[in-house]
Amino acid sequence: MALLAAPLPLLAQPSGSSDALPLEEIQTFAEVFERIKRAYVEDVDDRTLLRNAMRGMLSELDPHSAYLDEEEYQSLRESTQGEFGGIGIEVGTENGQLMVITPIDDTPASRAGLLSRDVIVAIDGTPTDSMSLQEAVTLMRGEPNTELRISILRSGEDSPREFILTREVIRSESVKHELLEPGYGYLRVSQFQSRTPDQAREALERMAREQPLEGLILDLRNNPGGVLQAAVGIADLFLDEGLIVYTEGRLSDTEMSFSASPTTPAGDVPLVVLINGGSASAAEIVAGALQDQRRGVIMGTDSFGKGSVQQIMPLGNGEGLKLTTALYYTPNGRSIQAQGIEPDVEVVRGRLEVAESRREIREADLEGHLSAQQAPRDRQEMAERLLDDYQLSEALNLLKALNVVDRRRR
């Protein structure tokens, strides 16, 4: 998740401090630098060596910290604002492998069928085993209408698959909505950008104008995260009090807490939240807050488990750092890092199948029965969609059951 912030102040250390710079290691660094300059097979300028050293410092900290040159820095800022050129994929590293966290909705990556946890083994023929995360992102982004060839290894398969994708201008609208049935809304948040809370609020208001909502499904599946404040804004749409998330780090300005405001457009609507292994970072903040506050039922499979906060720090030369500065915690003090959110109701991905055997005779089987009017096309399409998406179908069924129980209690 990206949290835009000002540069941190330089911390001076007293000469006698245990945190003073180790002179022996600095001398070794200078020696290595000089030997590369003198003996490497090709001539390498000082600027390149120093940049590589800075990249190495950050990449060895964790998979999410990185040194950003001017182009990479601008690219990252664009992605948090919702527009960039590429194939629409969020990536990370695990055990030294470049891995798909999730494809973004309605992009070349999602249309081609890339899946969460696919391992990217090559980009345009270049192996990724020695490639930094930021280098991979830079290679995959580019001018629209240009081709990108990636090879992926999928779990359970012995040989890589190759995909040839055409880059597009990714203008990712992060929020979609619709009524699945009268009174039952569906709100899809595909990533967390600065505009996401406002878009979600408008979507809720539109659905409520059509018909008062009796239940809502918040779909955070394959949501890779995004801006911390956007996650807080989404959770606040459903909570009218209490803690949403807090962060802890080494410096005072990385320790923050966010609480819900009293006004909310959907504070009492029955809620089911869908998550899966592609739900990461900011998506886990929302799911964790709603779960701890007992505001909704979390359904699906375990989330990704990225519980760290990155600050994007501008440097004086127009470049920047993406640095992990804190861990975040749910209202009950749970850390999501490397653990993820465990759903209240586990529902694996699948498809509904209608059993043909042992079917009872019904009115429609009788000769000469009266025919019903054909359902409208949009109703047919929705029925087919629910057949294809077992998790969504089960979420809708659960919402209906919750309403039945609620009516009996009144």
| Total beta-strand segments | 20
How much of the sequence lies in strands comes to 25-35%
Radius of gyration over alpha carbons?
A: 25 Å
The residue fraction in helices comes out at 25-40%
Oligomer: single chain
Shape: globular
Low-confidence stretches: 4-17, 354-359
Given helix and strand content, the structural type is alpha/beta
| Secondary-structure element pattern, one letter each | EHHEHEEEHEEHEEEEEHEHEEEHEEEEHH
Largest sheet: 6 strands, mixed
Write the layout of secondary structure elements.
Elements: E1 2-4, H1 23-39, H2 46-59, E2 66-68, H3 70-81, E3 83-86, E4 89-94, E5 97-103, H4 108-112, E6 119-123, E7 126-127, H5 133-140, E8 147-153, E9 161-166, E10 168-171, E11 175-181, E12 184-189, H6 196-210, E13 215-219, H7 228-236, E14 243-249, E15 257-259, E16 271-275, H8 282-292, E17 297-300, E18 308-314, E19 320-329, E20 345-346, H9 377-388, H10 390-409
Parallel strand pairs: 1-18, 12-13, 13-16, 16-17, 17-20
Antiparallel strand pairs: 2-19, 3-10, 4-5, 6-7, 6-8, 8-9, 11-12, 14-15, 14-19, 18-19
Helix pairs in contact: 6-7, 7-8
Features:
alpha/beta, serine protease, globular, 10 helices, protease, six-stranded mixed β-sheet, 30% helix, 20 strands, PDZ, 410 residues, ClpP/crotonase-like_dom_sf, PDZ_sf
Write a structural description.
The protein has 410 residues and is α/β, with parallel strands linked by helices. It is built from ten helices and 20 strands. It has helices at residues 23-39, 46-59, 70-81, 108-112, 133-140, 196-210, 228-236, 282-292, 377-388, 390-409, and strands at 2-4, 66-68, 83-86, 89-94, 97-103, 119-123, 126-127, 147-153, 161-166, 168-171, 175-181, 184-189, 215-219, 243-249, 257-259, 271-275, 297-300, 308-314, 320-329, 345-346. The strands form five sheets. Strands 1, 2, 14, 15, 18 and 19 form a six-stranded mixed sheet that branches. The protein has a six-stranded mixed sheet with strand order 11-12-13-16-17-20, with helices on both faces. The protein has a four-stranded antiparallel sheet with strand order 7-6-8-9. Belongs to the peptidase S41A family. This is S41 family peptidase.
